Amino acid sequence: MNRYYRFTTGLQLDLKGFIWFSMLFTFFRFLFIWWFSSQLPDGTTNADWWLTLWYGFRLSLKTVGIIVLTGFIGATVPETLYRNWPGVRIRHWIYMAATMVFTILFFVRLSYYEIFNSGFNMMLINGMKDDWYAILMTGIHEYGLLWKLPLAILVGLGITWCCVKFVNNTTKIYRYTDRKDLCKKSLILAVVISVVAVLCRFGGALNYEKSVNWENAARLPSNLLNEAILDDAQALYRVYSIERRRQNAMKILFSREELKQKISLLGGDAKASTIDAAFSHTIKETRLAKQPNTVVMVLGESYALWPFTEKYNHPGEYLVEQGRALIASPNSMYTDVMLAQGTGTMPAVNGFLTGLVDIGVYPNYEKESYRHLYGTGIANVMKSLGYKTVFWYGGFGIWQDVRQFSLAQGFDEFYDAASLPQQGSNAWGVPDKALFDGILEYMKAHPGEKVFHFVLTTSNHPPYSIDLGEAGFNPLKVKLNDTDTIERTRDTMREMGHMWYADHTMGVFVKAVEGIDANALFVITGDHAERFTFAKEVDIKTQSGIPAIFYGQGIKKEWLAPDSYGTAIQIIPTLAELVGRKGQTYESLLPSLFEPMPFAFNHRLWIDRTGLYDKQRDMPDSYKAIVSAYRDISLWRVLRGNQL
User: Can you state the angle between helices 179-201 and 46-71, rounded to 10 degrees?
Assistant: First the structure.
């Protein structure tokens, strides 16, 4: 058999592989939508399903093309040149491996979407720096890893067998009659291969402008359908691409003089000796007649805004009864919506410990964070106002190196799960009750001291292992008749039970602290939202908003407007303005909530008086310039230090 015959034989096997993987990804895509179809918003039509499959098919041409190209280079080309090359076997192994890998990834994606309402995203990068043992235990106890993984492998083996049967070596060989016919057919093959290659490269188009890629695939009014368009390879490429851009963004491409211009743009003093000093603020008004000795900030794990909203009033009146009681008190003020620092716990902690906006960099792993203090960080701000600072964490201090990082950034003391009673503990730490009990014992042992307590909770997080019955949770009190975006399932009730538990223990703790120090001041907020899985898709505020509640003797509601908004690290200067005395100074990159900004922003969202938006690329140019300045200053501060 001459080279032409061997080439066309291999090419037809490649075509079968092309068809196989196109069908496989389409099948997975359809199954993914069907699996979560109850989450689709009202008004979703069959046309939306078909468009998802069509856009997904086009996008998956990129993935299919890479797989088939691997077989083409590893089997067809050398098989054409060398008669005895085991091309069929090599091709089968490539296709079998790809089929098995993507089947397992599909199973993983089902659980991943349940947690993050997304296909593979940047939380993978966060997870690489997380507690792997805790993640493993969560996977086993919460997401059925021990039975889902073997099931995925078994299903993968079955689908792989189908792949081998579909892609085999019993294909017809096309012949040619003479040299002219050979040249003609070779030219046709060259043109067809070139066109197919271009279509694969540009996602079913002949140029980039009309292509489908991961950045422009979100073309439908549904997060679920938009995530379904991406196959797992493209979702992973999204993670890689964003991380690569993040790494590039970490390169400082502006001069020190340009840095000073950015400081001036934000109202800072470009003539100051340091960046921190450039953003020094003087307290102009003493707001609380008596400065509280005890100040407590609770950064609640997944303590989200949605149960506080009118739309979810029925479940919320029980789930966050304690938080709502604080809001209802005449001694409280709160924001209508607060933007979290990020979508994970450590970005939130990083934000409060540095006082810098999110730039995709983890300051807890940067050398500067262990050499010098961030004057804008919450511990250093509170120390400058005369408070001892104590960090309380319900987990373990080795997680994300949070113990060393917090101590390096101005906290005088650090206590974690190892310092607390271990009743009911799991891989992530101790229950919130044990954490709060430990803090109460500390307060009783240090009466009259001026102490700022920063409290990071853990219980409202998988694995949901709290004994809710013993804690007092009554699922019959969770009323869902006002909305169809939440289903009353066993898993949902367990998850909502842990929300109740986190809120309930926090409320009990607040009352107990007031029994020790009636003049105590509290700040209650969340590290992020975006964990609860709604039955149907919800708006951005419901999905991502967190509360910010300030409660204590002397606080007045009218200090914040009913429709006020902000971003998480604005809590730092707001707290300083509350506890500080007129004439005292503190350092803060952002203004307090008492000086409303025309807009607020975080890593991906922005809000102004016109609404809350998901894409920062849709920002007005004037907003973009300010965001860029904040981020560049924060980047310089983390990577190059404080000196101007």
Answer: 130
Task: Please list, residue by residue across 530-554, b when 16 or more beta carbons sit within 10 angstroms of its beta carbon and e when fewer do.
Answer: bbbbbbbbbebbbbbbbbbbbbbee
Kindly state the DSSP code that residue 174 receives in the 8-state scheme: P
N- to C-terminal Cα distance for the chain? 75
Give the C-alpha distances (Å, rounded to integers) separating 223 from 52, 257, 513.
11, 43, 43
Q: How far apart are CA 241 and CA 213, in angstroms?
A: 12
What is the rounded (10 degree) CA torsion for 418, 420, 421, 426?
A: -50
**What is the spatial order of strands in the sheet that 521-526 belongs to?**
332-334, 548-552, 521-526, 294-300, 451-456, 388-393, 413-415
- Residues contacting 13, CB < 8 A, separation 6+: 71, 75, 76, 88, 91, 167, 168, 169, 171
Token output for 535: 């039955």
State pTM to two decimals.
Answer: 0.77
- DSSP class per residue in 104-165: HHHHHHHHHHHHHSSSS-THHHHHHTS-HHHHHHHHHHHH-HHHHHHHHHHHHHHHHHHHHH
The answer to whether 589 touches 607, Cβ cutoff 8 Å, is no
| CB proximity list for 286: less than 8 A, separation 6 or greater | 580, 581, 582
Give bridge partners of residue 597 from the DSSP assignment: none
pLDDT tens for 177-225 read 667 766 777 787 778 888 888 888 888 887 776 778 877 777 777 888 8
Of the candidates 327, 268, 245, 255, the residue with the CA atom closest to the CA atom of residue 591: 268
Asked if 21 and 29 count as a contact pair (C-beta separation under 8 A), the reply is: no
pLDDT digits (tens, 9 = 90+) for 387-446: 999 999 998 887 888 888 999 999 999 998 888 876 666 666 889 999 999 999 999 999
Contact indicator for 392, 437 with CB cutoff of 8 Å = no
- The stretches of 291-410 forming alpha helices (DSSP H) are 313-319, 321-328, 345-354, 368-371, 378-384, 402-408
Distances (CA, A) of 636 to 276, 369, 378, 608, 643: 12, 12, 19, 27, 10
Q: Whole-angstrom Cα distance, residue 506 to residue 298? A: 8
Q: How far is CA 628 from the centre of its chain?
A: 21
Distance CA 460, CA 301 (A): 6
The residue assigned the tokens 């099931």 is: 151
Q: How far apart are CA 434 and CA 550, in angstroms?
A: 24
Distance CA 634, CA 355 (A): 9
Instruction: Give the residue among 435, 427, 502 at the shortest CA–CA distance from 468.
Output: 502
CA 543, CA 222: separation in Å to the nearest integer? 13
Q: How many CB atoms lie within 10 A of CB 458?
A: 25
Give the tens place of pLDDT for each residue, 251-303: 788 899 999 999 999 999 999 999 999 999 999 999 999 999 999 999 999 99
Q: Give the number of residues written for the chain.
A: 644
In whole angstroms, what is the distance from residue 364 CA to residue 354 CA? 9
Cα-based angle 38, 42, 43 (whole degrees, multiple of 5): 125
Do the beta carbons of residue 214 and residue 227 sit within 8 Å? no
| Tokens coding 100 | 């098995």
Selection from 306, 339, 332, 343 nearest residue 507 by Cα: 332
Q: Reduce the DSSP state of residue 317 to 3 states and report it.
A: helix
What percent of the chain stands above pLDDT 70? 91
DSSP assignment string, 30-89? HHHHHHTGGGSPTT--HHHHHHHHHHHHHHHHHHHHHHHHHHIIIIIHHHHH-TT--HHH
Q: Angle at which helices 87-116 and 46-71 pack, to 10 degrees? A: 140
